[in-house]
């Protein structure tokens, strides 16, 4: 079974993807981490984020099993990831890695921005997770503060809006809801309620 999950920053897609993978006993790939890992490597080398040749080389050597979510979750790496995510050649390389992961038995849950549209267009079930920008900024701010990072609600809200705008309007694989994806708006849902709603959608889709 392949479950495709897309949605904007801090909508809760990663949390749902991880929990759905546990529930249905399949693997999980947070594809955002692949973009973050390439961006972090470019930053560490002091290279410009537009250096596509080096970005592609980094992507070709990426080890999906050893991406450090703790380090890669840094707010500024998310911003850098969204800047390199406009590079078509780099996306091609990462998408082929992601497709290979998805197609390895017994299947997987992948979350990102283009899973239902580009990476797994034939997924058994697709979800597009959303929430208001304000709810998402509150969640991301709380998450950063609880991890000991500095964050203010206003600047996180600004950053999320800017990143969503870039992700939605880029030429290659923009973030968009696949026509056959189920929309789940979690603005008024806690994590448990959102998870139950997602399990119901997947269970129903797989029965029909
Ligand atoms: N429905 C929800 N209600 C409240 N907080 C949530 C909800 N879903 C996720 N969160 C919290 O919001 C933060 C961002 O969630 P995450 O799953 O990482 O989002 P994404 O993968 O879309 O960026 C995390 O701290 C997570 O625990
Ligand atoms: N499938 C994907 C996943 C992420 N990305 C890019 O990578 C950035 C970071 O993604 P992420 O999923 O880790 O970000 P959050 O939603 O966790 O904040 C996004 O803003 C996108 O620009 C993408 O273009 N395609």
Structure description:
The structure is a single chain. The chain is α/β, with parallel strands linked by helices and 208 residues long. It has a single domain (2-207), classed as P-loop containing nucleotide triphosphate hydrolases (Rossmann fold). The protein is 57% helix and 12% strand. The protein is built from 10 helices and 5 strands, in the order βαβαααααβαβααβα. The chain has helices at 13-24, 31-45, 52-60, 69-72, 75-84, 88-103, 115-119, 133-146, 153-169, 191-207, and strands at residues 2-6, 27-30, 108-112, 125-130, 182-185. Strands 2-3-1-4-5 form a 5-stranded parallel sheet, sandwiched between helices. Helix 1 (13-24) crosses helix 10 (191-207), helix 2 crosses helix 3 (52-60) and helix 2 (31-45) packs across helix 5 (75-84). It starts with a strand and ends with a helix. The model has no long low-confidence stretch (mean pLDDT 96). The structure holds adenosine-5'-diphosphate and cytidine-5'-diphosphate. Adenosine-5'-diphosphate (ADP) binds at residues 7, 9-15, 139-140, 143, 186, 189-191, 194. Adenosine-5'-diphosphate binds next to helix 1, helix 8 and helix 10.
């Amino acid at each position: 079974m392949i479950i495709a999950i897309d949605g904007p920053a801090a909508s809760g897609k990663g949390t749902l993807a991880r929990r759905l993978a546990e529930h249905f006993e399949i693997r999980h790939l947070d594809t955002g981490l692949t973009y973050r890992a390439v961006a972090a490597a470019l930053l560490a080398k002091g290279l410009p984020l537009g250096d596509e040749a080096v970005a592609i080389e980094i992507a070709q050597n990426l080890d999906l099993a050893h991406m450090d979510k703790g380090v890669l979750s840094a707010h500024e790496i998310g911003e850098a990831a969204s800047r390199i995510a406009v590079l078509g050649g780099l996306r091609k390389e990462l998408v082929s890695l992601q497709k290979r992961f998805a197609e390895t038995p017994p299947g997987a849950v992948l979350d990102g921005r283009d899973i239902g549209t580009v990476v797994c267009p034939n997924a058994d079930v697709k979800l597009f997770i959303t929430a208001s920008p304000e709810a998402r900024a509150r969640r991301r701010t709380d998450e950063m503060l609880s991890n000991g990072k500095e964050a203010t609600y206003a600047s996180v809200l600004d950053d999320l809006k800017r990143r969503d705008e870039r992700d939605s309007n880029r030429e290659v694989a923009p973030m968009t809801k696949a026509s056959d994806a189920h929309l789940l708006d979690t603005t008024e849902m806690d994590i448990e309620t959102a998870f139950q709603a997602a399990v119901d959608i997947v269970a129903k889709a797989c029965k029909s």
